[in-house]
Amino acid sequence: MKPLIKSILFICSILYFSVGYAQINYILNGSFEQYTGCPDEYDQVRRAHYWDAIDTSYTYMDTAFYNRQDQYPDYMNACAPCCATSTPRNVRFFQYSRTGRGMMQQVMMHDLSDTAARAGSTNYLQGKLYDHLIAGQSYCVTFFVVRSNYLSYAIDKIGAYLDDRSIYLDYRPGRTYTRCTPQILDTTVISDTLSWVKIQGNFTAVGNERYITLGVFFDTGDIRWNRARFGTGYALYLVDDVSVISSNANAYGGRDTLIRPGDTARLGAERNGDGMPSYWYVLGSSTPIDSGGTIYVTPTTTTTYVTRLDLCGRQSYDTVKVRVWPDTVVTVALGQLNDKEVHIYPNPASTQITIDGAASCTLSLFDVVGTKVQELTNLTPRQTVDVNTLPKGLYFIHLYQPSTGERMVRKLRVE
Fold it and tell me: How many whole angstroms separate alpha carbon 146 and alpha carbon 108?
């Protein structure tokens, strides 16, 4: 290979690396799919890579009990043999993981006025970040919970605290004395036992954050709850899909790729994609086909996919095309509207665009879910199109030449 070509490929690979990881999840193993072995008993949080409990559990009995194993979160996985740690059927719930096969079970609170709950403990789930956060940078934190549908209270004030692992809670009968304030806090009583509930919020990093801790960081008397109709005073929740992502990150679908029939293509982030609040669609459909920053697809024909990244109310989109070889549609398209002769500018645009070289074509403008938002017929050699009324986002320009059947699709970003 010639030195010049090698240099160009090297530069391109650097650019791709920086773009691809712009939306990376700082949480390692955010959806609990990486593990050392299938869980076969409670308290095996450490079987999920990069996750652990913290030494902050308290018990009604006395502080000498704080090292007991039964104060740890429980790792749950569909590979588990039975009962205590299996999914979806479990002795405490019937629930599928939100994504993949793994999730955590966590005791968020005890009602210590309930005699059956007095020997129990609240526990905290702690995960490791792949690198420290950047001081002054805003980050969006997301995780999902669902209440156990067996013997479980519903509570509020579930949150997340990020620090350098210096978090500390005193042990006191009937209460937890906290020395930290969670950056992310949900103040609603979460009672849903069927659908996963998103907890999400922005915060500005100090710069020393290397760990995230999930739980309830308030005294029992400060927590609102709905008592369980039957059973003991546990607030038991399942946790899945944890992410910490830069608030200004954009969705990333990956590079267009070519596969053979029956092959599988990997889309999205190349690492740390699991657990991300990303949703995937086939272009033209509004029904999600998958979620997470990285997915795998096996299309039978050439297909364009759309990914949407939800960062604390800020939505961004990207597309990626998977071509299936041989593909007669792609082969025919090579002889159609000449990319070198058709020019669309500016892109991104805010008020209007100009299209050169598409005389007599029909223009159709679609949003990312396939809704046609504008159409023009019999374009002039230099056609202007107003886009000032369109919401900001990603769109697709479809050009069609009725006399020859030629087609072309271009991306357009409106800002």
Answer: 12
- Residue 288 CB neighbours (<10 A): 14
Residue 364, H or E segment: strand 362-367
43: left (phi over 0), alpha (psi -120 to 50) or beta: left
**Both structure tokens of 178:** 């906290």
Compute the residue count for the chain: 415
Is the predicted pLDDT of residue 49 greater than 60, yes or no? yes
The answer to whether residue 41 scores a pLDDT higher than 50 is yes
Q: What is the pLDDT of residue 226?
A: 80
Residue 286 in tokens:
């509004």
- CA atoms of 80 and 103, how far apart (whole Å): 12
**Percentage, residues of the chain above pLDDT 70:** 80
Long-range (24+ apart) CB contacts under 8 A made by 20-23 are 20/252, 20/254, 20/269, 20/270, 21/269, 21/270, 21/271, 22/246, 22/249, 22/250, 22/252, 23/245, 23/246, 23/249, 23/250, 23/251, 23/252, 23/269, 23/276, 23/278, 23/293, 23/309
Secondary structure E strands in 60-205: 74-77, 102-110, 125-128, 138-147, 154-155, 158-163, 169-172, 175-178, 184-186, 197-204
Distance CA 202, CA 210 (A): 17
* Confidence grade of residue 353 (pLDDT, cut at 50, 70, 90): very high
- Which residue, among 218, 205, 220, has the nearest Cα to 178 in the 3D structure? 218
Average pLDDT over residues 317-322: 94
Q: What pLDDT is stored for residue 174 in this prediction?
A: 42
Which residues are within 8 A (CB) of 94 and not within 5 positions of it... i.e. 6 or more apart?
A: 88, 149
Q: Which residue has the tokens 């979160």?
A: 73
Kindly report the average pLDDT of the chain as a whole number: 82
Residue type, 364: S
Question: pLDDT grade, residue 268 (50/70/90)?
Answer: very high
Total-model pTM: 0.73
Residue 331's alpha-carbon distances to 70, 298, 318, 334, in angstroms, are 62, 20, 25, 6
Average pLDDT rounded to a whole number, residues 326-336: 42
Q: Which two tokens stand for residue 368?
A: 């990312």
The CB-based long-range contact list for 386-390 (8 Å cut-off, 24+ gap) reads 386/351, 386/352, 387/349, 387/350, 387/351, 387/352, 387/353, 387/412, 387/414, 388/350, 388/351, 388/352, 390/414
In the chain the domains, ranked by start, together with CATH numbers, are: 1-24+250-334 (2.60.40.10), 26-246 (2.60.120.260), 336-414 (2.60.40.3080)
